[in-house]
Design brief:
The structure holds two protein chains of two kinds. The longest helix of chain A has 44 residues, at 227-270. Chain A has helices at residues 2-27, 32-51, 61-72, 74-92, 98-116, 133-145, 152-166, 170-187, 191-221, 227-270. Chain A folds into two domains: 2-120 and 189-270, Arp2/3 complex 21 kDa subunit ARPC3, CATH 1.10.1760; 130-186, no CATH class. Chain A contains ten helices and no strands. The termini of chain A are far apart. Chain A is an all-alpha fold. Helix content of chain A is 78%, strand content 0%. Chain A is elongated. Chain B folds into two domains: 15-133 and 257-333, no CATH class; 137-242, no CATH class. In chain B, 75% of the residues lie in helices and 4% in strands. Chain B has eleven helices and four strands; from the N terminus they run H-H-H-E-E-H-H-H-H-H-H-H-E-E-H. By secondary structure, chain B is mainly alpha-helical. Classes of the chains: A mainly alpha, B mainly alpha. Chains A and B meet through helix 1, helix 2, helix 4 and helix 10 of A and helix 1, helix 3, helix 4, helix 6 and helix 9 of B.
Chain lengths: 278, 334
Amino acid sequence: MAVFNYYLAAVAIIVLALLLMFVRFEGRRPKARELAVIAVLTALAVVGRAIFFMLPQFKPVAAIAIIAGVALGAESGFMVGALSAFLGNFIFGHGPWTPFQMLAFGSVGYFAGLLFHGVAWQGEGGHDCAVKDKDKKILEHVDGAKMSKCDEKRCCEDKKILEFIQAPTSDTRRIVAQATEALSHNRRISSLRLTLLCLYGGLSVVVLYGLIVDILYLLFFTESVSVQSLLAVLATGLPFNVLQGVVTIFFLAVLARPMLEKLERAKQKFGLMQKVEH
Amino acid sequence: MNTASVRDAFGGLHPGPGYLFFGFVIVFSVVFLHPVVLAISFAGATGYAIYLTGAKAVRFTLALLVPVMLLAALLNPAFNHRGATILFYLWTGNPFTAESLLYGALGGLMLGTVVQWFYCYNAIMTADKFIWLFGRITPALSLVVCMVLRHVPHYKNQAMRIMSARQAMGIGAQNEAFGKRKIRISLQGCNVDKDGANNEAFGKRKILRAIISKVKDSFAVFGILTTWALENAIDTADSMTSRGYGTGKRTSYSDFRLVRRDIYALVFIATAAVICAATVASGAINVSYFPLFTMGVKGWAGLMMLLAWLAVCAFPLVFGLWEDAIWRSLKSKI
């Protein structure tokens, strides 16, 4: 009988872990925009999983969770991964595997955020993209002036800066041109980073996702939880996990660059995910 | 998003009794590996699944559940060699015991039971019931859940519109060989030709090219969808903010009202749960597998527990059939 209590214990631990993440998320009182972007990515993952449902293991969930983690941070990556697993199961069926999948996809996104978030956009390829702080601020306002209609104070500031920019000084023009070029260059993701990301994607799916989800089958199928039976279950699951790892690498190779660029653009254009309140 | 087209009496109840029922039945089936308890639970779940979805549930049970259950039954004795009754020796030299086989079979039955209950759960516990449960506890999270539930069909539609727009512009996979029909036509055209072998290879290459261009096109559509979705979401978020999102405590709307029969159902399930838990804790019903299989139901308490368990497991099915019978009798009088 002990085995099945192992299962319940595992579920209890996982639910607690998920709850901790969710409570943290709630406690942060996330802004509407942050929620909206997380919802978009989650929905894209679910739709992607539904589009490819006829091909076994061909799901972009891990890839999109990783992209979310890279672009928006570890916590958002976790939320996107866990929620896509959970909501996707409204289509594909809930079962004893739901909490395990949630934790597995969530942690794939979480560690992607820890490893790649914030690093990905700085100092690309040694190009002259060291925009000075002042220039950066100007640029932010140029980009931001298009959207911020709500904040009066900010509008005034924008006006001032726009006037400053429109003044026919060659110096300002130069700064803006330089900064614009640097920023657009910054949005691009280098091949090296893309390769690293793909590598991480494949490894994390095989190791993290595979381990977490296969433990479920260990708890369900064998009575004696031992190293031997764990290895046997892992060996059985390995082909599936490797297949999914390859699929994730494929999705990352195809999707990572355009999606990260789009997210970065949205972040710059709309001032998403900013820690500083204005 | 929710494929719950099934309307039945139990699914029509308030989500409260539903969550209590599934929580209790699934946890109790997992915790207590007793043959009689599991058999009752599996019968209840299968009966209800068949009542809900008919032939689909039968197919699901026979094609998916039974093989998995058999696999689980055979897997356990291969790894676990405890038990007194040795049937034969495996090629590894380890004994294959009857107790271990039985244990594996019951483990498989347990797995099948849980999956079967989840099958019923998927049929009647829709996402709006989930929102009812979590809307007040975790407002931000369930807001995301709500948004995603709305986005999924929305994005599917938008993807269709993007595709037809691209088609109208003459971009995309459509113009090479779109869909199965065109591929088949091109294949037929090839077969008519004299040089069969050569053309067959040509046809295959054409199919491959069609598939590749279809995949490429899908990713292009996905990219366009992403840009559009992000802009759209920012619009939604700004509109939410301007309507006061985040300024106060978030309320949650739900369509469910707790009426008298929901309370009856709640009380019924809760009473049965207490009886079952108390009997198992007192040891009036027990089971042991190793080294020898023994199973005992002691006195009235044990019997009462089995009756309560039977009543709970049969409840959704009986309730549904009962309501159907009432409906039919009322209809015939009109």
